[in-house]
Every structure is written in C-alpha cells, then in structure tokens.
C-alpha cells in the first residue's frame, strides 16, 4: 500500500509539472503572436520584481541596522525601489533603454567572440565564430530599428524563454511518469514470479502425496 501511494504521489507530481510546462509553453506561444503585449508584460513584471526586492531589502536593512553594511543595504534597496517605480510608471521608456542595453551586449559579445576565435583558433573555432557572427548581426539589426525594435525584442525573448522552459517542464513530467511506470513494472515482475513460485510449491502432486503416505505407513 505504501508503495502504491508513493507511486501515485510521484505520478501526480510529474503530472502537475507537465501541466505547468504546458501553461508556460502556451503563454510563450501567445507572447510570440502578441510581442507588444509580451514586452509590456515583461517590463511590468520586472518593475514589480525590483520594487518587491527593494522593499524586502529595506526591511532587512532596518532589522540589521547595527551592522557595517547598513547604509550600503539602504542605498541598494532605495535604488531598487526607485528603479521599480520608474519601470512600472514608464514601461515603454524602460523597454527602449533595456533594448539598447541588450543590443550593445550583443554587439560587444559577438565582437569579442569573433576576435577571440580568430586569435585562439581552438577546437571550437567554427562554433565560436558562428556565435560571434550571430551576436554581432543581432546587435546590428536591433540597433538599426531602434527604438521601434523595443516594442518586440524584449517580448520575443521573454516569450521564447517561457516556451523553452515550458517544453523542458513537459519533457521532465512525461519522462518522470514513464520512469515511474517502468520501475513499477520491473518491481511487479519479480513479485509476481515469486508469488507463482510459492503457489506452485504449495501445490503437491496427488501421486506424490500417495507415495509419501505409503512410505509413512510402511515405516
């Protein structure tokens, strides 16, 4: 009974994991269709996250006001609160700034990968070269269409992250349920064989019983 309960609980847990993955994947697909809404949604979530982290950090700093890092914690918390309030109040402007920052990261990262692959020429030379060229091209494309690109770049990245995370959770849930089923079937096989062996041992041939009885009477 305990084994069956554990099996059911594991299957339910993996089933919930797969269901959560399906929800995330569906959200990612919807976000890829409506990239503008996904961009605003991601910025609002980012702003609220900064705001909540700032409030929690401020409360923690007040509780540990006797420490040497009190003022540093207060400044960091205040910056998080201010940044969160600005992002929530002006999500489009914040999206434009973050898009510019992401494009610069793509440019610098792609340039460093290109130069590094040409200088080092290691075993991953081709793959590093492709990564650098892709990052450089992506940064140029985002900057060429900025600030119009800020309406869909962040939303696309956010939706892709949701989609791939959801697909990963679905794979984990389905794979986990299969593993539980395989382990259960392998556990039931030896158990059934042992039960059949015990039953066959208990069942004695009537002829053998008669021989045993005659031996006992002669004795």
Judged by helices, strands and strand pairing, the structural class is: mainly alpha
Count every helix, treating DSSP H or I runs of 4 or more residues as helices: 7
Classify the helix fraction into a percent range: over 70%
Our measurement of the CA-to-CA distance between the termini, rounded to an integer number of angstroms, reads 48 Å
Give average pLDDT, whole number: 77
Which regions have little confidence, pLDDT < 50, spanning 5+ residues? none
Number of strands: 0
Biggest sheet features: none
Order of helix and strand elements from N to C terminus? HHHHHHH
Choose one word for the global shape.
Answer: extended
Indicate the proportion of strand residues. under 5%
Alpha-carbon Rg, integer: 32 Å
InterPro entries: Acid_resist_chaperone_HdeD, DUF308_memb
Pfam families: DUF308 (PF03729)
Protein name: DUF308 domain-containing protein
Keywords: Membrane, Transmembrane, Transmembrane helix
Provide an overview of this structure:
The longest helix is centred in the last third of the chain and has 50 residues, at 153-202. The model has no long low-confidence stretch (mean pLDDT 77). The chain is extended and about 60 Å long. It is built from seven helices and no strands. With 219 residues, the protein is an all-alpha fold.
Write the layout of secondary structure elements.
Layout: H1 2-33, H2 35-63, H3 70-89, H4 91-120, H5 125-144, H6 153-202, H7 206-218
Keywords: Membrane, Transmembrane, Transmembrane helix
Region (Disordered): 184-219
Protein name: DUF308 domain-containing protein
């Amino acid at each position: 009974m305990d084994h069956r309960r554990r099996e059911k609980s594991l299957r339910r847990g993996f089933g919930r994991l797969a269901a959560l993955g399906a929800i995330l994947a569906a959200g990612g697909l919807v976000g890829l269709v409506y990239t503008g809404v996904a961009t605003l949604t991601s910025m609002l979530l980012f702003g609220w996250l900064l705001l909540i982290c700032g409030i929690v950090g401020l409360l923690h700093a007040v509780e540990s006001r006797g420490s040497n890092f009190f003022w540093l914690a207060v400044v960091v918390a205040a910056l998080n609160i201010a940044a969160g309030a600005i992002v929530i109040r002006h999500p489009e402007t914040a999206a434009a700034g973050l898009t510019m920052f992401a494009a610069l990261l793509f440019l610098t990262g792609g340039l460093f990968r290109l130069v590094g692959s040409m200088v080092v020429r290691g075993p991953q030379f081709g793959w590093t070269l492709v990564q650098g060229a892709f990052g450089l091209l992506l940064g140029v494309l985002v900057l060429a269409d900025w600030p119009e690109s800020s309406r869909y770049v962040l939303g696309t990245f956010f939706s892709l992250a949701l989609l791939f995370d959801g697909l990963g959770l679905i794979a984990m849930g389905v794979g986990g349920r299969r593993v539980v089923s395989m382990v259960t079937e392998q556990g039931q096989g030896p158990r059934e064989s042992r039960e059949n062996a015990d039953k066959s041992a208990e069942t004695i041939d009537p002829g053998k019983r008669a021989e045993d009885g005659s031996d006992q009477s002669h004795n």
